[in-house]
């Protein structure tokens, strides 16, 4: 029986299933949905809220994860995503990282070694050059690095672009549908149970962000994960700088096309995965910490008023790396969760997930290090050992 023949539970003629059903309308699920639809595969994305309402619409927009096996593909794809999707992402290339002390410079230089090792170009900047290249920087700058790679994009635009591009290719995105369980037959997942009835599937992709572990556990698949609550602030608009992706002082962020500085970083707070919406409101100490660090990083923006702030939940695996895998014993299950680096990698992670679903392997990157079996010897109390307990603070 094909997925679309599954009997509907609401009595309508609307097809209730798809060849591939994706749980989660964040940037990971939507990108996978886009690449699947692009490949001519019938795809349905189920999202319990609105697309991008969770971390995918609340993040810093940074696209510079040079330590990932998916990074080369991320770098290849971002500059062409607007053309591929048919909608703008506001991708802007390159980043500058400013160090405010010799100690910060030493720390940031370690990341530079890794980037250069992979063939990416980085220029060392003295304090004067930092101030020339970053008009909002000031006397606090000690030195910096100009990454001739990476960049940033607008998370809201990007999520929307993926969703529209799926629709344009005949795929479907259903919002306000909460997945509550799965139907199985032998070693196959045959249906996705939701608060709107059951949707049949030939293949299931779980891309539920921080909920991925909990959802996969319904199928007996253990993905070790913990969630952290992070915050961001947005200032009033300031004159546009030539390069909008400026990091440093423990912060990540970007200048929007309108001129606002949108920044996050500093301490994150470990929470239960099932932390619900009231918990995603910003708290003054975390937002205040970001504002203070931002004023130190960009002193000529210190006068700018903070006009918005929000919180989001970041998914984390024990080693900080994504999980992209087809876990046993299921013949038609794929899981994808990104461990805090999911926005920047999304063009590439979605393509890798599409290939895992369709072919069982990824042909453009070695993603063996992202398999789930790397955690097979993990201590049961790993989260306690790492200090990742609800209420504790994690610095980034
Ligand atoms: C403040 C902040 C700043 C960040 N900055 C950056 C950055 O600069 N660069 C970067 O690369 N990454 C950044 N990240 C991390 C990045 O946002 C995430 O890694 C990425 O968005 C994960 O995308 P996702 O689609 O896997 O998960 P999510 O965005 O969490 O999406 C998962 C979706 O699944 C849905 N879902 C869950 N359970 C169910 C269910 N039962 N039924 C139906 N739907 C369900 C959720 O509603 C959600 O929309 C940041 C995150 C935060 C919070």
From TrEMBL:
UniProt keyword list: Oxidoreductase
Keyword Ribosomal protein among UniProt keywords: no
Domain of life where this protein originates: Bacteria
A GO CC term assigned to this protein in UniProt: cytoplasm
Residue ranges constituting the Rhodanese domain according to the UniProt record: 24-62
Organism: Paenirhodobacter populi
Protein name: FAD-binding oxidoreductase
Gene3D superfamilies per the UniProt record, alphabetical: D-Amino Acid Oxidase, subunit A, domain 2, FAD/NAD(P)-binding domain
A Pfam cross-reference name: DAO
Tagged with keyword DNA repair: no
GO molecular function terms noted in the UniProt entry: oxidoreductase activity
